[in-house]
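Late entry, written up from scratch paper. The run itself happened at the end of the previous shift, but nothing got recorded in the book at the time, so transcribing now.
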Amino acid sequence: MREPVGSPPRSGSVLACVCACTALVVGLVAAINLAVPMVAASGLRPSGAQLLWIVDAYIVVFACLVIPGGAAGDRFGRKGALLAGLLTFAAGAAVSALAPNVVLLLAGRAITGVGAALVLPNALGVLVHATAPEGRGRALAVWAAMTGIGGLLGNVGGATVLSAGSWRGLFAAIVPIALGCALWVGLVAPRSARHYRRLDPVGTVLFVAATVALLVGIIEGPERGWGSGVVLGAFACCGVLGALWVAVEIRSPAPLLDPRLFRIPLLASACLGMLVTFFGSFGLFYLNASLLQYGRGYPVLLTGLGVLPLSLPLLAGSRYVPGLVRRIGVPATLGAAFLATGLGLFGLSTAARQPYPAYAAWLVVIGIGITLALPCLTAELTAALPVERAGVAGGLQSATRELGSALGVAVVGTVLTATFTRRLPMISGHTPRTVAQALTVAPDRGAAIVDAFTDGAVSALRVAALVTVTAGAVVVAVVVRKDPSARGPR
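Output as recorded:
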């Protein structure tokens, strides 16, 4: 059934509305990193592993449910799904703001992730329905840019809120913003036709469970020991649940995500490239917030502004990337992208104790890598599937992006915690897992504690650099082998 197109006069207000919704859910991924030192020093007293879960709970649920979130919009109506997502997002933020303990904070973060998974795909669906065909390309370009700018807005906006109060204020401020966006959607967004689409609850549950099991193994390793029953059991559960997910999806008449799609080399390599790009960038965001606050003593507002150099290439250079691809080809562009990102991450590790201008210069290098990678990977991912499966391509892009973010936070945070505890000087028989815990036990040893934390951040940045360059080389090799037309100028 073909949907009627919304009237063009309303398309501008709809575009502004869905961009605001998108910036809200994407921005929270970045903003929470700024609050990590505050949460660590709060009365909740979270462990190092719990801090990682506080960041990752939202991202994991968001990543795993974004594809079924889009399917729910197709079946029940995109406007209704978008409204439900915003209200759920507000409810999760309220629970997080009021949480008296870590368990309820994690629950609030997960609820917010459910809301985000409904918001992102259905904001796009509402926009497409409300925009006339001749203006759709421009509208989609603006919306896509907002998915990148949202992280920047989250850093700056989150820093502004946090500088005026506690970490609870960040979540409290989200509630009225989300409710305001819901009211805006209710006023300007048109209703779209509903399409019967099978949902896949079994596949969704297995996918979420396998992802969570993998992250449990990674995050709990430093605290419980890599040979502990919990960690080994988590990795084993991940393998079993992953195999069950593949078996269920292959037999399902309407799978959440058909695993056989990954037999398409270009699709698999583009998904890996997207995952690696966000692995490095969000691993950096997690480290950067604490490194600037602990290592350099920056207040939270200055910390939020401290990451701005990374955005300069994104804002100034994105429009030149398509022309560069036509001149030198996709493999060369992607090779330069992953090399720049990896070099930037390694360079940042060498500048951890240097003056900020040197640190900022390496942030620009990382930004160049991300600027080169995203348009190429998006184009390759879209080109790997026929036009009629563009929705699958969009869902894969969102899912791999958020999964990469979750893995980046988990792996980088795990390396940070392991190195920090190993380098930490003995403190009255205690083994603190966070800077806040260590400073509480031994406030007179602040310099040594911060030095151990900086050593951990340096190690984590170098691991992220190695992963980025290695996986990036695999992506480029697959593109060269399977898409000869991409080797040179087009």
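The chain has 17 helices and no strands.
(Scratch paper discarded after transcription.)
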